[in-house]
């Protein structure tokens, strides 16, 4: 995994110049340790893979603006750590965490109708928004996502089917997942804020 600083410097210089082969070498050299670090904290393979892909996608897209002061791995590690922390903050109250919501409801002794209706209605609203988000994707991105989720094709199979590079497939999947996570995070945060307001209002009315 570890190469000399000179080699890292040479690889990074080629990446900044737009050399895709150098970027592939960078990815193969450092993707596994970055993934291992993220997975160690999240314990969710899919989310750890997404964050790892986003780190390398980001470094490719912003390569001309990035200045690396220390080692290349330290930069990747710091970037992955920051993305992981942001992910944790954004997903602190996921809509699927129904046990947490129901525990709050039980503690507040709210009417059963609130306990039965809030989580499911919130999830239905989020699912509807996800469907709309997918429908609005660029055509090729939508095809890649559907081939991955509906047919179970692997990245190489999708690339061969659509006559595009595996990197393009990874890029599309990473962007789709990022957009969907943003949609879920935005809506779940809104629903949770409304839910807390409901709890506070009910508490005040009980005085």
Walkthrough of the structure:
The protein is mainly α and 207 residues long. Helices cover 80% and strands 0% of the residues. The chain is built from nine helices and no strands. It has helices at 5-16, 20-42, 45-61, 72-90, 98-108, 112-135, 139-150, 155-162, 166-205. It starts with a helix and ends with a helix. Mean pLDDT is 74; it is low at 1-6, 92-105, 107-111, 113-118 and 199-207.
Radius of gyration: 21 Å
Helix content: over 70%
N-to-C order of helices and strands: HHHHHHHHH
**Total beta-strand segments:** 0
Mean pLDDT: 74
Largest sheet: none
Straight-line distance between termini: 63 Å
> What fraction of residues sit in β-strands?
under 5%
The total of helices stands at 9
What is the global morphology?
globular
Summary of the model, kept short:
The protein is 80% helix and 0% strand. By secondary structure, it is mainly α.
Q: Could you give the topology of this structure?
A:
Elements: H1 5-16, H2 20-42, H3 45-61, H4 72-90, H5 98-108, H6 112-135, H7 139-150, H8 155-162, H9 166-205
Helix pairs in contact: 1-2, 2-3, 2-4, 3-4, 3-9, 6-9, 7-9, 8-9
Pfam families: Sigma70_r2, Sigma70_r4_2
Transmembrane segments: 187-205
Keywords: Membrane, Sigma factor, Transcription, Transcription regulation, Transmembrane, Transmembrane helix
Keywords for this structure?
single chain; globular; disordered C terminus; 207 residues
């Amino acid at each position: 995994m570890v190469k000399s600083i000179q080699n890292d410097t040479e690889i990074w210089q080629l990446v900044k110049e737009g050399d895709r082969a150098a970027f592939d070498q960078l990815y193969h050299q450092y993707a596994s340790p970055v993934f291992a670090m993220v997975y160690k904290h999240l314990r969710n393979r899919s989310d750890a893979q997404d964050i790892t892909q986003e780190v390398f996608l980001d470094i490719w897209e912003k390569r001309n603006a990035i200045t690396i002061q220390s080692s290349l791995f330290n930069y990747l590690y710091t970037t992955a750590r920051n993305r992981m922390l942001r992910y944790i903050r954004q997903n602190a109250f996921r809509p699927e965490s129904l046990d947490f919501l129901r525990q709050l409801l039980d503690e507040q002794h709210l009417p059963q109708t609130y306990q039965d209706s809030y989580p499911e209605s919130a999830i239905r609203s989020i699912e509807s928004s996800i469907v709309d988000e997918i429908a609005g994707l660029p055509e090729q991105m939508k095809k890649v996502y559907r081939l991955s989720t509906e047919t179970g094709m692997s990245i190489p199979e999708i690339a061969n089917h659509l006559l595009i590079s595996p990197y393009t497939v990874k890029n599309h999947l990473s962007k789709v997942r990022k957009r969907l996570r943003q949609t879920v995070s935005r809506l779940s945060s809104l629903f949770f804020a409304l839910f807390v307001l409901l709890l506070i209002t009910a508490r005040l009315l009980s005085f």
